[in-house]
Amino acid sequence: MYLIPQGTTYTGGGDGPRTTALGSRPKLLNPEVAGKVWELVRRNLDWVAANHSSETCDWWEEVRSSDFFGNRYTIAQGAFQADEAEGGPAYSRRPRRSAAAGVIQWMPAGYVFEPFQVGDLEDGLFGPLSTPVVRTLATLSDLFCKSYAVNQQAAAAKTPGVLFGRYEGDSYDGGNPWVLLTASAATLLYRQAQALAKGGSMDADANQVLHQLLGRDVTQQNLLGAGDALLLLMKKYLTNGMHMNEQIDRNDGSLKSAKDLTWNYANVLKAIAARKAAAATETLVI
């Protein structure tokens, strides 16, 4: 890590080494240089395989634990990339795959939905219509609706939508709604709409929770509408020419904290893409 613009090595404190990051390095390799640096990447994977149960920090760099959904995703991705780089089954990958399995066994269910988006391997674990994901979305929606005055004002005016923050008791810069997380919640609703349209199913408990959250039947169109409501409520507060600050003030809706946060724009674009994909999916009639 280097300081910009000085170009000198950073020697301060940090939260590493992060097992949630090291495992994903093969996925980021440029194919043209992969062969030249693979040995270094393989050492990273071997370190993760040997130390996957050690503590690392969460995406917000505030909580330390060994139980993060991101661990499972990055370790699995690292193993998949190792298959390709090392020529398939001949390469000994069992330690890496065992590490990924260990993360799954010890993974708690109470994570926020952002990891559900980027950590989904489409293998059924924490899919968009699964009960843990549906309950997480509903619980956080209820929490933030009650926590932020801007959401209470919207509810009183019968304006649909909820602005989402990070977690209960967040104190960073006042603990406000975040643009990127509101967009992420919308993305999840769009993914649920697409999954349902493709014939996906949910158990009775998940259906009841989602029905209560929507206030109407769980259909593709109603899920699309719920996602739209989140983005439209968020857009209401983007009063600076659609520039997106990190946070929206919980009381008066003013933009605050970091300006033009890149993660915001990435998540909004993901939400737009997810909506387009969901709307283009014809409902499967059985």
From TrEMBL:
<protein>
    <recommendedName>
        <fullName>GH15-like domain-containing protein</fullName>
    </recommendedName>
</protein>
<dbReference type="GO" id="GO:0005975">
    <property type="term" value="P:carbohydrate metabolic process"/>
</dbReference>
<dbReference type="Pfam" id="PF00723">
    <property type="entry name" value="Glyco_hydro_15"/>
</dbReference>
<dbReference type="InterPro" id="IPR012341">
    <property type="entry name" value="6hp_glycosidase-like_sf"/>
</dbReference>
<feature type="domain" description="GH15-like">
    <location>
        <begin position="133"/>
        <end position="272"/>
    </location>
</feature>
<dbReference type="InterPro" id="IPR011613">
    <property type="entry name" value="GH15-like"/>
</dbReference>
<dbReference type="InterPro" id="IPR008928">
    <property type="entry name" value="6-hairpin_glycosidase_sf"/>
</dbReference>
<dbReference type="GO" id="GO:0004553">
    <property type="term" value="F:hydrolase activity, hydrolyzing O-glycosyl compounds"/>
</dbReference>
